[in-house]
Design a protein that fits this description.
Radius of gyration: 13 Å
Number of strands: 2
Number of helices: 3
Low-confidence stretches: none
Helix content: 40-55%
Mean pLDDT: 93
Strand content: 5-15%
Length: 73
């Protein structure tokens, strides 16, 4: 979160991908760093126990959602 927020503040397109249990922590971290509206991508938890097809589908979904966030299309 911190790195993504710093990069974004420096003018670089950035966000973070966080699993659902850390939603509140990510939101609070952004607020603590003064960017309450910072856009974060949330995915299901856990990641490490998932099969390859789930990982591929989730990566595609996140990539599709990231393009408009990072490049404001």
């Amino acid at each position: 979160m911190h790195d993504a927020i710093l990069c974004s503040g420096a003018g670089l397109p950035a966000t973070a991908v966080v699993t659902q249990p850390f939603r509140k922590l990510a939101t609070q971290t952004a607020a603590n760093l003064g960017v309450s509206g910072f856009e974060v991508m949330f995915i299901d938890h856990p990641v490490w126990t998932r099969k390859d097809d789930w990982i591929e589908a989730t990566a595609k979904d996140v990539a599709d959602r990231l393009i408009p966030v990072l490049f404001k299309t």
